Amino acid sequence: MGGRGERFDEDLLTNVLSEFARTLTGRYDVSEVLYRLAEHVIAVLGVRGAGVSVVDEHGQLRPVTGINELTLMLETVEEQFQEGPCVDAFRQGEVIVVERIEREVARWPKWATEALRRDVHGVLGLPLVVREQSIGAMNVYSGEPRQWDETEIRVARILTDIGAGFVANASELEASQRTTQQLREALESRIIIEQAKGIISVHQQCSIDEAFRILRDHSRRHSVGLRAVAQAVVQLGLRPEGRQQRRADV
Questions:
Q1: Which helix (H) or strand (E) holds 15?
Q2: How many Cβ atoms are within 10 Å of 221's Cβ, its own excluded?
Q3: Most CB atoms closer than 10 Å: which of 42, 52, 167, 180?
């Protein structure tokens, strides 16, 4: 079974918690934190994907992170039909544990069919809770049927709670802004980031997944927020170099 041979990386988890602790002491962008949350979950748990969705003003879940094509497509289906583990986790305020998606087709017919078509077979749905209120949820995708053990679920829950805590803390730091505004900004950031990925993909003739890596690498190298880099790509004509291009220029 997947999961038994894919135990989480304890050293990496320690580094992730340390990074989040340092970030919490200063000003930060909520969208950036949620992207980092999804990336960290993928790395720590050794899974194929992870994605965060938040509730909009109409009470509908909408994805705010597009780490790779897999998560982008599955969460688009989840948003369109408002069905899937993320939706249930959000509505119930509980962790949804799925070892075999094959068994859940009747429960989530459209979402489960799409997940299986993309070779996703296990999933966790975890609620993002602020002050006992669900504000969104995160999906964690395994490429194999997975017997999620208690430690893995606990680690995923800790990271999700940290992400929710950042949203709540941002609201406290900016007394003039409400949590819903923070979430709206995260949704807006997702749009500009997706536009930037498309532009880079065409310019570099690479996949959307590679375009995101190029965007993220540029953000890290220059210590600039992901949204700011995306805006520069869309609005100012910035064209970050891919790794192969940088090596060729050396």
A1: helix 10-24
A2: 12
A3: 52
Long-range contacts of 236-240 (CB under 8 A, 24+ apart): 239/200, 239/203, 240/200, 240/214, 240/215
Cα 160 to chain centroid distance, Å, stands at 10
Q: Are 37 and 159 in contact (CB under 8 A)?
A: yes
Average pLDDT, the chain: 86
Is residue 42 a contact partner of residue 7, using CB atoms and an 8 Å limit? no
β-bridge partners, 50: 140
DSSP string, 144-164: S-B---HHHHHHHHHHHHHHH
- Amino acid of residue 57: E
Q: Tell me: do 136 and 226 sit in the same domain.
A: no
Distance CA 28, CA 24 (A): 8
Number of domains in the chain: 2
Residues 33 and 106 in one domain: yes
Q: Are residue 132 and residue 218 in the same domain, yes or no?
A: no
At 138-192, the pLDDT tens digits run: 999 999 999 999 999 999 999 998 888 877 776 555 544 556 677 788 888 999 9
Assess contact for 24 and 36: CB atoms under 8 A: no
Q: How many CB atoms lie within 10 A of CB 173?
A: 12
